Amino acid sequence: MEKLTIKEIARICGISVSTVSRAINNHYDINPETKRKVQAVIDQYGYVPNNSARNLKISDARNIAVMVKGITNPFFTSMIKVFEQECCNHEYSLVLQHVEDRANEVEVAALIEKEKRLNGIIFLGGSPLDSREKLDRLQAPFVLCSVAVNNAADFDSYSYVAIDDKTESRKITDYLLDSGRKRIAILAAIEEDCSIGTLRLEGYLDSLIAHGIPADPELIVRPLAAENTYTYENGYAGVRKLIEQNIPFDAVYAISDAIALGAMRALHDAGLRIPEDVALCGFDGLEIGKYLMPSLTTMAQPMDMIAMDSIRALFDQINQEDAEPYHKIFPGELRKMESA
Residue 72 is inside which H or E element, if any? Predict the structure, then answer.
């Protein structure tokens, strides 16, 4: 017989697809006799869906890994809390794995998969599609969360939940230009970046072009190292560089709120008023931005919704082997606060 699907196992056993899924995933409310019946069919046809049937015999391990690329970015904190709560609700353990900026998150995931026998993986940030062949060799189902979706067609075969970084970045640059700012400095990612930092820079450049303003390379400020990108220190150092090199600017657009917080302190230390002398915008919508003086104008992402959709899409893939890839692009929300 050709490779079975969960639907065919359900037909042979005379039970529902959802019951087969719960049996394969060791759900607590499955009757032992039903579980033995499912296992017998799996054994007869040599079928091991998502590496989970083996768990029926030798282990009750239920692990989901979150591969975090850029763990210093506070934007991920609330999302990880959602993952933790949902894993707890579904009786899974969460394996949180920090991936260094220059490390390959897919290679790290493959190693963790072997060690922990993962049921599922969430790639949080980064550019997993750069290692497509290695990604396709993963046995556990996975979801790409808050990754750079620069060409949706490339992602057709994979589940992803994100925002349109390029479009939303253009909107916030449009807002600054339409409010009368002419010299907008962007605190960007490193030149080698191939993730959301590049898309947000492209959105900034598209806005300048649409307004007939040539891009000034001096206003594109990059960090010294990739690991420093989404940090307060980077924001502070970027603004200090502009000031010390006497580069004129009347607005600062930081590609994350964490960077914007450091930039705000540097502007204050230099005696520059926000927004009278320099407008300041961030990107992400961190809660702390509302409580700053002045409060931070930012492009807010629906962090909890992105996280919830991602983990639910992953559970759907775990419980339904033939589940279709899930694609969701959320809109951002321009929060017009006091800093711009």
Answer: none
pTM confidence score:
0.78
Looking at domain 166-300, what is its CATH homologous superfamily?
Answer: Response regulator (3.40.50.2300)
For strands 159-163 and 142-145, give the pairing. parallel
CATH class of 63-163+303-331: alpha beta
pLDDT in tens, 149-171: 877 778 888 999 999 999 999 99
Residue 186 burial class via C-beta count within 10 angstroms: exposed 0-12, middle 13-18, buried 19 and up: buried
Write out pLDDT tens, residues 193-204: 878 999 999 999
If you average pLDDT over residues 302-309, what whole number do you get? Answer: 96
> CA gyration radius for the chain?
23
Is residue 56 over pLDDT 70? no
DSSP classification of residue 294: S
By the 8 A CB rule, do 86 and 120 touch?
no
Return the ∠ at Cα 101 (arms to 95 and 105), rounded to 5°. Answer: 45
Q: Return the CATH number of the domain spanning residue range 6-58.
A: 1.10.260.40
d(CA 44, CA 332): 50
Element containing residue 324 per DSSP (H, E) = none
In SS3 terms, 172-213 reads as HHHHHHHCCCCCEEEECCCCCCCCHHHHHHHHHHHHHHHCCC
38: closest CA among 62, 9, 67? 9
Q: What residue spans in the chain does CATH classification 3.40.50.2300 cover?
A: 63-163+303-331, 166-300
Contact 66, 97 (CB under 8 A): yes
What is the 8-class DSSP label of residue 306?
A: H
Task: Write the pLDDT tens digit of every residue in 174-226.
Answer: 999 999 999 999 999 998 887 899 999 999 999 999 999 999 999 999 998 87
